[in-house]
Amino acid sequence: MEVKGIFDGVVSILEKVLDFCAVRQKVIAANIANADTPHYKSFDLILGQKLEGEFQRIDLKATQPGHLRNFIGMVQTHSNHFSGRKPLQSNPQYQFVPLPPLTISSDGNTVDIDRQMSKLAENTIMYNIYAQILSKKFRIIKEAIQEGGR
Amino acid sequence: MNFFDSLKISASGMRAQRLRTEVISSNLANINTTRTAQGGPYKRKEVIFAAIPLGGDFHELLVSASTNYLREVGVAGIVTDPRPPILKYDPNHPDADDKGYVAFPNINLVEEMVDLISSTRSYEANVAAFNAAKDMALKTLEIGK
């Protein structure tokens, strides 16, 4: 899903990170559910190269005065310039990576429940952070629409 | 993005652990049972877990090849412990054999209790994962409020 117009690339990126956290939640849930399954190998989800690239692109540089002033109608005159409305066309690449076993278990299971629980907490917090940022982002736009003319 | 898969995976874990708890309860309850429908003393049962691919419709499986890694947990079967019964000398017992020995189930109380605790903890871990997914889903609804 792409958002255009008054929404900038941040919204699009936040969407993708929220997606990533949601998929990672599934992975962690699967690891926890299989904590007692013989021969189950635990794995984790990491972000591939592409989304990290997106993060780098948004690293906005004001190399000349006045760059940020007309943010909405900004034109790209230099390769370093950030195009505010450019849609992020690439889908994030998730990579499933097996986790190295920290403990040796006799049934071949590599799930470390403590590690999975801490990941679960971390993932939930990160998701809430991104959701809150996105929420605030929309609130700012709403504020601009409602209060800007007063 | 949907959280129902997460909830489904956690629910499968809870279901599996609950069944394990039931089997342990059965073992504990029958620790002194000398008569069963199959004849002989009660035999200790154990649950075998298996990781099974997360079910979805064909389209879903086709499109998201990446989610092939996701496994929910299922119960492959309930197996009977092959350990021989414990023989106790009690000639007055109605189930005693010719020599006066009674066959009792070979169930170790400590082993069952440890298993029970482990099962309870695993269940709790699944509940925590379930609640985390639920909180995330509810947080999503707050976007745009």
- Sequence of secondary-structure elements of chain B: HEHEEEH
Q: How far from one another are the termini of chain A?
A: 33 Å
Mean pLDDT of chain A: 76
Strand fraction band of chain B? 15-25%
- Runs of chain A in which pLDDT lies below 50 for 5 or more consecutive residues are 55-60, 68-74, 83-90
Describe the main β-sheet of chain A briefly. 2 strands, antiparallel
Q: Number of DSSP strands of chain A?
A: 2
Rounded average pLDDT of chain B: 89
- The quaternary organization reads as heterodimer
- Biggest sheet overview of chain B: 2 strands, antiparallel
Largest interface, C-beta closer than 8 angstroms, per-chain residues: A-B, 37 and 43 residues
Proportion of beta-strand residues of chain A = 5-15%
SS summary, helix count of chain A: 3
Radius of gyration of chain A: 20 Å
Shape summary of chain B: elongated
Instruction: Give the strand tally of chain B.
Output: 4
Helix content of chain A: 40-55%
Spatial order of the strands forming the largest sheet of chain A: 1-2
Characterization of this structure:
The complex is a heterodimer of chains A (150) and B (145). Chain A has 150 residues and is mostly helical. Chain A has helices spanning 9-33, 49-57, 113-147, and strands at residues 43-47, 94-98. Chain A is elongated, with a radius of gyration of 20 Å. Chain B has 145 residues and is an alpha+beta fold. Chain B contains 3 helices and 4 strands, in the order αβαβββα. In chain B, the strands form 2 sheets. A two-stranded antiparallel ribbon of chain B has the order 1-2. The relative contact order of chain B is 0.21. The mean pLDDT of chain B is 89. Chains A and B meet through helix 1 and helix 3 of A and helix 1, strand 1, strand 2 and helix 3 of B.
